[in-house]
Amino acid sequence: MSVIRAEFKRPVIAITPGEPAGIGPDLMALLDFDETVDWVCVADPDLLDERARLRGRARPWPHYAPGTRGLSVLPVALGRRVRPGIPDPANARYVLSCLERATRGCLEGEFAALVTGPVHKGVINEAGHVFTGHTEFLAREAGVTEVVMMLVAGSLRVALLTTHLPLANVPAAVTPRRLDAALDILNAGLKRDFGFANPRIAVLGLNPHAGEGGHLGREEIDVIAPALTRARSRAIQVIGPLPADTAFVPERLADLHAVLAIYHDQGLPVLKAQGFGEGVNVTLGLPFPRTSVDHGTALDRAGTGPIDPGSMVSAMALARALANARARA
């Protein structure tokens, strides 16, 4: 299903706050929302009201209807009343229902983009729902077979070949098909959504020192390097496979638009060390823009503790920019 390419002169963007016992609802209470966008918070209105009172910043939450201007809430009922900081598996279905409704709105052209707050994967799975992460969930809901998770912090963009996968399973997942798809999606996303006419992408090796010429593993020689040769034949500007321990030095990054890391903890620690609290998670390959925060649920801070809204602010700003880019395409 493809998104309706309406001209979103004033974007309507959905937000799902995520785990109700975490800081997502707090962020909804504390943020100053961009008034040039119509924000639709897909959540339980009573939850938002309660968290706003705890934070001492009550705000009106008019119910959403098509054409509603400014900030509104699209009601989804909690399974059980929430105690801040204490996740409850009874609310796992609520979290998924919020995501399903927001995704459906994006697919049908009702919303121009989706911003997601942090969820608690363990609680969702404990409730009996198989859930490895937003990225995989949204791909399945959209009927897309391949997507790419990319985190953005300032000018640094790190995409992942594999996402929420045990490290022991990564080598078998480094396949020609996965590499070809990831490079196509990353290249197309950098062009369409980020405006780079000729993106330059670096691809990391799987093994230390990118395999050291085969002495530390042959994945670079047998799988990754041939994929890069195929990518160049498709006019994708790509270099590598590069050793991960030197790929992020400023001199090398200066000439790149993105780095494709092979697994989650190969690339993201670097990005989060440089821009934690300001980073944004972007899902490339969906038929609509999706952004998210770069942090977790922060259960210990829900309701009363100090929180830094920087990542959510950045995620919302990027969602607006991506929605406008799609509308102009």
**Sequence of strands across the biggest β-sheet:** 3-2-1-4-11-10-5-6-9-7-8
Largest sheet: 11 strands, mixed
Beta-strand content bin = 15-25%
Unreliable residue runs: 1-8
Query: What gross morphology would you assign?
Result: globular
Helix content: 25-40%
**N→C terminal distance:** 18 Å
CATH architecture of the largest domain: 3-Layer(aba) Sandwich
Query: What number of domains?
Result: 2
Top-tier CATH class of the largest domain: Alpha Beta
Count of DSSP E strands? 11
Mean pLDDT: 93
List key phrases describing it:
17% strand, alpha/beta, 11 strands, 329 residues, Isopropylmalate Dehydrogenase, disordered N terminus, single chain, eleven-stranded mixed sheet, 2 domains
Task: Please give a structural write-up.
It is a single chain. The protein has eleven helices and eleven strands. The chain folds into two domains: 1-144 and 286-329, Isopropylmalate Dehydrogenase (3-Layer(aba) Sandwich); 146-284, 3-Layer(aba) Sandwich (Isopropylmalate Dehydrogenase). It starts with 11 loop residues before the first strand and ends with a helix. Strands 3-2-1-4-11-10-5-6-9-7-8 form an eleven-stranded mixed sheet, sandwiched between helices. The longest helix has 19 residues, at 310-328. By secondary structure, it is an alpha/beta fold. Helix 1 (24-30) links the parallel strand 1 and strand 2. Residues 1-8 have low confidence and may be disordered. It is 36% helix and 17% strand.
